[in-house]
Amino acid sequence: MAGRPLRVLMLEDRPEDAELVLHELRRAGFELNWRRVEDEAGFKGNLDPELDLVLADYHQPQFNAMRALKIMQDMGLDIPFVIVSGAIGEDMAVAAVRQGAMDYVLKDRLARLGTAVKAELRRRQRLAQAALEHHALHDSLTDLPNRLMLREETQKVIATNATAVLLLLDIDNFKEVNDSFGHQVGDSLLRQMGPRLKERIDSAHVIARLGGDEFAILLPGADAEQGSRTAHAILRALEQPFVSEDHALEVTASIGIAAFPEHGALAETLLRRADVAMYAAKRTGGAYAVYRKEDDPYDPTRLLLRADLRRAIDHRDITLYYQPQVALATGELTGTEALARWKHAERGWIPPAEFIPIAERMGLMRPLTLYLLELAGRDAESMSKAGIVRPLSVNVSMRNLLDARFPEMLEEVIARTAGGTPEAGNHRERRHGRARSRAGEHG
User: Fold this and answer.
1) For position 436, what pLDDT does the model report?
2) Which terminus of the chain has a smaller tally of CB atoms within 10 A, N or C?
3) How far apart are the C-alpha atoms of 443 and 431, rounded to whole Å?
4) Are the CB atoms for 399 and 360 separated by under 8 Å?
5) Which fold, 300-431?
6) Which top CATH class is 147-292?
7) pLDDT digits (tens, 9 = 90+) for 189-244
């Protein structure tokens, strides 16, 4: 109220009584912007959501305070309503308060009016502040904690627990629900997610909506294994169809799991890594996944490896090891499989599962594969001259199989490394003929 007058509407048919009421409010320190009305038409015409206070005489010739209170309530207005009367019985006063009046004040005891109004305005100010704080920390659609509150709660949990787990849940194909049935059905589904998730977790655990179709669950004191069990239980809970606008909706979800302290010591880090794990679950078709560095395109160590990997390919620092393939029944050597290995000058041996995804993202799969195929071809030729003539397998990436030039490149490599003769070329093609298309290939 500071900085502007108190806006008052007064229902009072006696101007002298109105002046006494205004005097008491001014004496209490209020600056006033007021208007007096005497009948129902005047009252209705001056009701305004911006009013701070309504004062009404209980007894009017044809229009009384209780009728005025009902009109205000029917209009959906929540304005402090004080009954001022020369004579009102205690039962009538209590009934008025029960029906929504803030207070009642006798005209011969107006001195308490200012105190009562101040107390009510302070109460409403506290409620408004609490509502603002709730709105700032909660999602408006579901009333679940929002991203800001989740971040604050996660930091508190990290500060007071030895372990914790953050689950990030994304509803699969939620856009199809909105596109097929409309946003009203989609919103209804989102509102049902919180209660459904609460069925399978402890009441002390935080469930938050991060926006769109993403939700998070914070598990204080849990580890990654407990997080996986919780994720499994949540996915089981989602198997029951959701009913929205007479539509029974089958819902599946993908969940990413990040654990404190092994995956991060800050709320934002856990959120980001749970997000990485969630997208890994979507890519692999799994229902949930625990964070792994090799899945994380934003891992700092992987970013540092990018420039090193380009140099390693140029300088031929990546080599091949050959794993024998043996028939269990006879013990006979039936072939060999080429396994790519990179010995980094500072980090030591780096596995293919770590550097192959980087090569794929950097567009380096073609030069890397070309180099390794040529190396395998030369080694196969050397083994052939030494009397070891067995099929040799080289694994390739899905990116290679999607490359329109890959068959031509393969033929050129075979021709170069087989001495240029058609017979040798055909033989080498057989030896390179096995290709697998999983992520992170070359052994």
Assistant:
1) 41
2) N
3) 16
4) yes
5) TIM Barrel (3.20.20)
6) alpha beta
7) 999 999 999 988 888 799 999 999 999 999 999 999 999 999 999 999 999 999 98
